[in-house]
Amino acid sequence: MRVTHRFASRSYSTLNLAKASSKSVFPNERYFKPEIVTGEVPGPKSKELLQNLNNVQDLRTTHFVSDYSKSSGNYIADADGNIYLDTFMQISSIPLGYNHPALIEAAKSEEWVTTAINRPAVGINPSSDYYKLLMDSYMRVAPKGLTQVQPLSTGSEAIENAFKAAFMWYQQNQRGGPTQPFSKEDLDSCMANSAPGSPQLSILSFSTCFHGRSMAALSVTRSKALHKVDIPAFDWPVAPFPHLKYPLDQYEKENRATEDACLAEVEKIIKSCTKPGRYGPVAAVVVEPVQAEGGDRHASPYFFQSLRRITKEQGVIFIVDEVQTGGGGTGKFWAHEHWDLQDSPDIVCFSKKLQAAGFFYKKELTPNMGYRIFNTWLGDPLRALQLRTIIDVIEKDDLLKNVNETGRVLFDGLRQLEKTYGHKGLIKNVRGKGCFGAFDCKDPATRDALIMELRRRGVEAGGSGESTIRLRPALVFTSKHAEIFLNILNECMSKL
Amino acid sequence: MRVTHRFASRSYSTLNLAKASSKSVFPNERYFKPEIVTGEVPGPKSKELLQNLNNVQDLRTTHFVSDYSKSSGNYIADADGNIYLDTFMQISSIPLGYNHPALIEAAKSEEWVTTAINRPAVGINPSSDYYKLLMDSYMRVAPKGLTQVQPLSTGSEAIENAFKAAFMWYQQNQRGGPTQPFSKEDLDSCMANSAPGSPQLSILSFSTCFHGRSMAALSVTRSKALHKVDIPAFDWPVAPFPHLKYPLDQYEKENRATEDACLAEVEKIIKSCTKPGRYGPVAAVVVEPVQAEGGDRHASPYFFQSLRRITKEQGVIFIVDEVQTGGGGTGKFWAHEHWDLQDSPDIVCFSKKLQAAGFFYKKELTPNMGYRIFNTWLGDPLRALQLRTIIDVIEKDDLLKNVNETGRVLFDGLRQLEKTYGHKGLIKNVRGKGCFGAFDCKDPATRDALIMELRRRGVEAGGSGESTIRLRPALVFTSKHAEIFLNILNECMSKL
């Protein structure tokens, strides 16, 4: 089966695309289009490689085996020579597409080579370039109000250490401030994992949320049973996340009532957990700006403003998990910028699109002593170098503007498809910001069939939640790419 | 203060060093020697950079600010132009010294560049090169009996996921095998972090052990209260680690009795925790081949053989944490190879010197379904590329042989110093394998003073435990470097 596509019918577009397509920075991307040359996907080479791989590493989850040397921009090539327009981008973790020339150039520099092969224990022997690197990478995108950064290696590691910082802060306040010493009882009892040194404290998270898979991160994760079953968990409380009606602007009143009910529950849980009991006092609330893995669930700025207010009133740390939303996909660098907060979150966690992971935090959350938030590597300066180039390109090429422009084309098109195919249960609840979008199918089987149909026609897409398709293109996804995607989606939907 | 040193008095050496020094692969290392050009360490430039750094990242733990572009082989340069012989090597995490030519060459290759800038979600879209890479890196050093690898990003992440694999295996056995489905009760209850879906199971670890700092890893860590205080912990049991008398060969009988007492306690804990109670059933025992952070505590092959036997008899997973010991420092690639086990450990965790992290495991520990041990990146293929070159160099340059040869010089010298300065409380309990060595001072203050004195004379060294100095040189540390170190250590001890 060789599938070819009419390019850019323009039926979905409101923009002049000539400019966008002529200024592609990728030398090869212009020659690419979604093109499947094997009878089925994954093709025979992918399958053979996968069989070998699964003999030594558990890779049953693989979509197909990719050829990164042949991928370019928004197109990913596979081992069989198939070319896919990639709207999923490695689970939302590639900001500039494949083989961006600026990253190729940066990776060839002496600075990269030296940094790559001399990975330091940053907390012991940071490099003399490191201060400048911090300022040119992380600190350039530090969320307003957060003056400190703790680089780490993964999103889960960021979450785990953010929790630790919150617990330390909470206990420090109980002791009466940073200059108060630990008691002997604290120091002795923690060695046996017992209170008061290992206190019964909790983190409040929301139904259908996802915050990672290491064991504390997994304890707050509530998206899917398969992630959690068989694993011991901290018995921490959960509040309902508002499940809103879309489009949000048509259901403002109902949605406000839903959000208010959830907020009341948050406040009730925090107030009822002030002493040891089933849960123990809540030290922090953690929330995603958009529940991504849980099925792209949105809430309004009002909801998040209220969470900020409640946590502040109750003396609880407010952690915003921007692991999936951070890095520009929503049309702002941080999704929480859409909320227009008076007072910033206390902690913002990041990873994925930034390539470097960690968390930003307010100065007062700095532990009272060194070595308390610590590990061998404390992140990877190589990935900070990469982040520096990523930010350079986002600024130079005005990629947030591109995301917003493309987003308009994308969502106009999706809403048009919703009108056409909504009755078939193929697309409803179109929602999103920037190009960080999603829609639901009527059931999981339909969603899975649609993803497979897209892949057969040369589009790589990802699912989430029960029956959602989530769009996570790179920041270099233009209106032209959106049109190609919409055309193929249209074909799939007319066929299913 | 400009300190210069007599090189190679030969008083400690039993080897002809001419060969070792002439074949250095580092173009610059021959011109290097420990040389302090500032009045104090850290020098003024280090201090200024640190002040800036601490404004944005908590780096109070820093020894000095390094200049990696000027470092070579076993010598690390700092921001002030001081040169240190590095016996600590970024907390034991640099295998081939600084700027090894083979790594420079590898890092300049197109393969490195492509891999660096197209970091995949390995579980979704692995690269077509990935199978070959797995076989040429991880699988080339897979411990005997362990046919599977799970690449991850850090040592803590390896530990957390090894625990998850053990818990899944334990619960699967409770259900009656991999084909038995989860019950509805399991799937529902785990979403509320409650049993039976989130079961009360535990991991047994040892007193004074260290396994990492994310919250499950921290729950088994027992080395220092400062790591643990204020952080909620899983209430898991602890067994006494044998605190042996050194030298081991002089106290075999007493040490055996100590080990037997500890082993009896391990067996007693496992047997007493077979149903939910304070701890819950023990799913796994985790142990370091040498307790490193806890103060370089050794145990005999008999102890570890017995642990393997007991865990097998009791149906408990045996996890060996080789995060610090793995990669050749003990004179074998894996420290557990020194034990001559009949049946291999079930899981071996690694990170640090391998640059790539993860765990090896027995096939029967593969989860019954995909997505259960999973995250976005599942390690970093770039670091696997680095590991491939590291293994190439270890093999080509016969570095394990070098480690063992250097170790003999190192330990002969340390024992000689113990005879000379033991009475001053400066050095006792000299112990180690390969170049993975340590000695104790009489108290923490003396240890800290000795580390500072070494640094002032151009040697970077690291502490551990209460009052221990641990030696963690790179695998390219030759007898010549050992002699330089011993000479300076001698000077320090004669002065203190």
Automatic annotation (TrEMBL), chains A, B:
GO BP: gamma-aminobutyric acid catabolic process
Cofactor(s) needed by this chain: pyridoxal 5'-phosphate
Molecular-function GO terms, alphabetical: 4-aminobutyrate:2-oxoglutarate transaminase activity; pyridoxal phosphate binding
CDD domains xrefs: OAT_like
EC number: 2.6.1.19
Transmembrane segments: none
Protein origin, superkingdom: Eukaryota
Keyword Membrane: no
UniProt keyword terms in alphabetical order: Aminotransferase, Pyridoxal phosphate, Transferase
GO cellular component: mitochondrion
InterPro entries tied to this protein: 4NH2But_aminotransferase_euk, Aminotrans_3, PyrdxlP-dep_Trfase, PyrdxlP-dep_Trfase_major, PyrdxlP-dep_Trfase_small
SUPFAM superfamilies registered for this protein in UniProt: PLP-dependent transferases
Family: Belongs to the class-III pyridoxal-phosphate-dependent aminotransferase family.
Protein name, per record: 4-aminobutyrate--2-oxoglutarate transaminase
